Amino acid sequence: MPFRQYHNEQGMTLVELLAAISLFAILVTLSSTIIIQLLNSEEKTSDQISLKQDTNVLVSEMRSTYYDENSILCMDTSEGRIDLVMDETSITNGNRELEINNGCVENVDHTEPLHILLTTSNKSDQNFSVKTTWTSKTDYNFSVSINEEIDFPNEVTKDNIRDGCNLSGNTSFNMNEINAHYRCIVTDGNAEFPNDLLINKGSLTLTVDGNAEFLKSISLLKNNPNNVELEVFGNAIFNGDLDFEKNKTEIYIHGDATFKGNIIFKKNLTEIFIEGQITCNREVIGENMVIEESISCSSN
């Protein structure tokens, strides 16, 4: 007995075809919107990074001109990548505010500190401000230091730091590595770190009522997501390198700070706030400023 096979050869109806096209159009629109948003976000981020870099280059060029003992300083934005925001830019020499004409100031007195507030903008209408102070180049010796004559009755090691870290009097942190989360407070005394300090998988919050000296380097590994916060109410000396990866790190120095090694920032997530005078490789580079970029202070 013969069998007949029946096949549906109608295909898609017009309604089904229109529905498929509409769905495809919606998907394309949504995808395009997301892609455009991502590209715009990436462009804005890139513009912000470029703005900060160009502004820092501008400030660096001005600083070099200042330390060459020139009485005229110019903010050169002729390349057109950034512009000065004049309403938010000021230069004060001692107690005298200097008039800015065509991006330049004249009659700079090198016997008085030069306070600079510089704000720039870019084509994306993003702004970036830098506040810094420069003083004449001097061979500056740190007035307060921690030396061998000071006694450190308290000693913190990796074995006893877990028992508590609220100490009174001079304290020596005799440890090489931090792998846990610690909060330490030193009151009525100074602090010293005699060894290389590696902050590996942990975090450290340290407050020192007096002065602090780091005799060797401080390093934070890039795979450590934890924050580090250091606050020193006196003066601070950093004899070795400060090597920060992508960690969020904030250092507050209420007194003077001396850096004898290199300050290495791998990412712009670290800020060093200094209220007093800053010395880099025996050269005073300013006071009451924030360090947000790598600086070479090593004499090698």
How would you summarize this macromolecular structure in one to three sentences?
Helix content is 18%, strand content 37%.
How would you describe this structure to a colleague?
This protein has 300 residues and is of the alpha/beta class. Helix content is 18%, strand content 37%. The strands form four sheets. Strands 8, 9, 10, 12, 13, 15, 16, 18, 19, 21, 22, 24 and 25 form a 13-stranded mixed beta sheet that branches. A six-stranded mixed beta sheet has the order 11-14-17-20-23-26, with no helix packed on it. Strands 2, 3, 4, 6 and 7 form a five-stranded antiparallel beta sheet that branches. β3 (90-93) and β4 (96-98) form a beta hairpin. The protein is flat, with a radius of gyration of 29 Å. InterPro entries: N_methyl_site (IPR012902). Its main location: other. The chain crosses the membrane at residues 12-39. Keywords: Competence, Membrane, Transmembrane, Transmembrane helix.
